[in-house]
Amino acid sequence: MVSLLKNKKKRTNSSRAWLTRQLTDPYVAQAKKDGYRARSAFKLIEIDDKFQLLKPTNVVVDLGCAPGGWLQVVAQRVRKGQIIGVDLQNVVPVGDVALIKGDFTEPETVAQLLGGLGGKGVHVVLSDMAAPACGIPSVDALRITLLVRSVADFCDKVLLPGGHMVAKVLRGGTENELLSELKQKFRKVSHFKPASSRADSAEMYLVAIGRKPQESGSRWSHAGTEPQGTPHETEPQGTEPQGTPQGTEPHGTPHGTE
User: In the prediction, which pLDDT does 22 show?
Assistant: First the structure.
């Protein structure tokens, strides 16, 4: 490892630090051993092992799916359902998973996604999307909140009663107004930081379990369509964070980060 670093004389300090971290990260090594495209696969494994969200016949949408680590985990656990991944980047296919290249925050991409669902309701919506960080906490918090809100709005359109939503947020949790709205719409809302998420990372995950039946007349208003095997309420590790996120973390364009 030392020789590798010495040979890269033109590397910046930050890139050298990143390389050192990658070479010494046990989750990076395990991901390679297990055939996952990224260490982030273990984050979803931990989330699903704890909250029991994914079922074999589910319809699942993965937003910000590049490079495909989460899709690999979903494909292993949802073998008879339908899986659609969306990202700004090209993603190498994962089995029979349908892929859409586009910006989820644009109406055209959402329309394409709805078309791909073919009128079906969704059991689980996953989002590992991250907004580009500028280093100003209030601005970074607003950007990630807007992404989470876009995911929540999408859930309003497609999520079945009893369905679940997972979205990346920053340290401090979900903005109060949005958190209050989600608690009205879901049976249980928690914040969870997987052990595989780096300790110095500001990321954590909002896990909303058990979508409540919506008002009469909405598309998915009938409790009879609730997915089988809805998980029991599970308390998050530690106390639930409140308020606007304070931590920041460098991110690229809105897609899954590792």
Answer: 54
